[in-house]
Design goal:
Layout: E1 3-5, E2 14-15, E3 25-27, E4 35-38, E5 43-48, E6 53-55, E7 75-85, E8 92-100, E9 106-113, E10 116-123, E11 139-143, E12 155-164, E13 173-178, E14 181-186, E15 209-211, E16 225-239, H1 250-259
Antiparallel strand pairs: 1-16, 2-3, 3-6, 4-5, 5-16, 6-15, 7-12, 7-16, 8-9, 8-15, 9-10, 10-11, 12-13, 13-14
Length: 266
């Protein structure tokens, strides 16, 4: 675990990160300042449809879909999980977004689409502003067919992405979870390595992380309306395939879900 925002503050101006480099999130200035509210675990982030937080760019939140350094013959993974509660279903509701360059998007976004969990990976190749198949579009959206999580109750949502360099054994696979259950499995955009040694396309970028709205480079908007609690980032890069433990597993995610209001430090 590299980041953990519990959103337990009773007032701004920052949302404390409990682990890693302590990447505190900055509450937006009034009138876009989120309010604290009773959460699943202590307090939660209360977003009323025009609020958001910003976390400054940092290597810990600069998730990558390839090993970070040569010779690129290793396994890597990242995972994001959070508790959310919302009744707002129509359209795109952004949980978090870290992207740049609308004409050739690079980055990632976690969102709800008509109440269903979705995740975008973007590496900017080829250029364009629409998402679709990897070979012909700069970004791909992975959206679960269900269930509807915009039902006014608490749900644990998560995404895991695992990739590898040349000649390694760990599979390239992405998964979306709701309440500890896999609701969608996908093949993530590849890192396009050349002979296992040269860096290819990547989703890493220099943008800040927006929580509760679309990235500013994409016009903002897409505001999440509801509660977010216990947001966490996990990230591991350049792990030898023979000792690779795998990404955050379903058992791990189910354990977080089963702990519920007890949290991780009961």
């Amino acid at each position: 675990m590299l980041n953990w925002w519990g959103f337990d503050e009773t007032a701004g101006p920052t949302a404390a990160d409990y682990v890693g480099n302590l990447n505190d999130g900055a509450y937006a200035a009034s009138p876009n300042d989120p309010s604290p509210a009773s959460g699943l675990v202590s307090n939660a982030l209360d977003l009323d449809g025009n609020d958001y937080l910003t976390v400054p760019d940092d290597d810990e939140i600069d998730l990558s879909n390839r090993p970070k350094s040569g010779p690129f013959k290793f396994c890597s993974y990242f995972a994001i999980d959070a508790w959310i509660k919302t009744s707002h279903k129509p359209g795109v509701n952004v949980i978090l977004d870290k992207r740049v360059e609308p004409s050739k998007p690079v980055g990632y976004s976690l969102f709800l689409y008509n109440g269903r969990l979705g995740f975008q990976m973007a590496d900017g190749k080829p250029a364009g502003s629409a998402c679709g198949p990897e070979a012909t579009h700069p970004c791909s959206n992975y959206v679960a067919p269900g269930p509807n999580v915009a039902d006014g109750t608490w749900h644990l949502i998560a995404v895991t992405v695992q990739v590898h360099g040349s000649g390694t054994a760990c599979p390239e696979i992405g998964k979306l979870y709701v309440d500890g259950n896999v609701v969608h499995t996908f093949v993530p955009r590849t890192h396009s390595l050349s002979n296992g040694n040269l860096p290819g396309s990547d989703i890493a970028n220099s943008a800040d992380l927006s929580i509760g709205r679309r990235a500013p480079a994409f016009g903002g908007g897409g505001y999440f309306k509801g509660l977010i609690d216990e947001l966490e980032f996990f990230n591991a890069r350049n792990v030898n395939a023979s000792s690779f433990p795998g990404a955050l597993t379903q058992a791990h995610i189910q354990a977080i879900h089963n702990a519920g209001s007890a949290g991780k430090c009961p």
